[in-house]
């Protein structure tokens, strides 16, 4: 499989130094007593915001300081070409940053922050698909007195580095058992087939007939993670989807192990009682759990699909949350696992659309150049995957991007494809129970009961 070129543009190591005036004006909000923040903008991409730490004027930015990442933009080859095309008629594309003192947000429609100054960093993205490039690393003078020694100083690091990805596209909705194509430019190559089915309620061992052997030990996997209790009332249960390679061998699966049940007195799946899926991979002749996805319907103005995805290393270790956020039920969005990203909720996924999610809330980070600590499962770091799904009632053919560094075999890619299918199907599983599902998602009992 040949990957598609992508570039990861990052902004980090932010800091601000403001000289202390001999007679400070009462109207000036000083960062030592009030937080600072900045707005980061790249043309054609959503605006991002980040907190800016304050450093006393007499201090230097320490070289060994914890490396913080403030914003990330994911650029495809088409994005880079579009930015480069703009430079024919104007200056080179620039990353623009506006720095504010005071708190973020608005009061009565008026921004509460006070603009301190603006910074513009030129970007020459040619060749960054194959080599890393640092566009700026150090201090910049900002404010009305930017050319004087008494000006405020803003520290930042802006760099781009290659981030190649495999891109997959479902050729139909997951419940219709579609083919999955790998996309590279204008080339579409079939790589997987999906089989949607209903697991009988008495079989907690969701298994594929294609597996040649199945040790009895595998029978406990799903019952260990799923809900065995009988649930009265409205529920959606027993869905599963198996991903096969082109030879017909099963290489991944997603199985609904906890039914999606309407909360008492309501028509929705609640956060306190979510439905859940196991994402399974074959091993030693049986299925082994790789991850667990929980999903529910959020209340309030968002009225979206809430989700949490956990990595399951093995039965002896605790699960690790890799993603937790919300997608718009109406517009859909991107499910993203990005362990080098930020969690400010302002579109840190670059090409994010309304309803996109940042993840994870509790990503481990450590020292190094935007580095990643030696946490137990550091095999997953940086951008891991994203899946674009449509909102309710729309034809959804999920597209999936997976970082090359996380694909060592066919089963690796298939697991992410199965996870994308589970996210898409959760959009239907969490629909209000007053709404009927399409016939492919209803078993005979649902249709005739």
From TrEMBL:
<protein>
    <recommendedName>
        <fullName>Formin-like protein 18</fullName>
    </recommendedName>
</protein>
<dbReference type="Pfam" id="PF06219">
    <property type="entry name" value="DUF1005"/>
</dbReference>
<feature type="compositionally biased region" description="Low complexity">
    <location>
        <begin position="208"/>
        <end position="226"/>
    </location>
</feature>
<feature type="region of interest" description="Disordered">
    <location>
        <begin position="201"/>
        <end position="239"/>
    </location>
</feature>
<feature type="compositionally biased region" description="Basic and acidic residues">
    <location>
        <begin position="227"/>
        <end position="238"/>
    </location>
</feature>
<dbReference type="InterPro" id="IPR010410">
    <property type="entry name" value="DUF1005"/>
</dbReference>
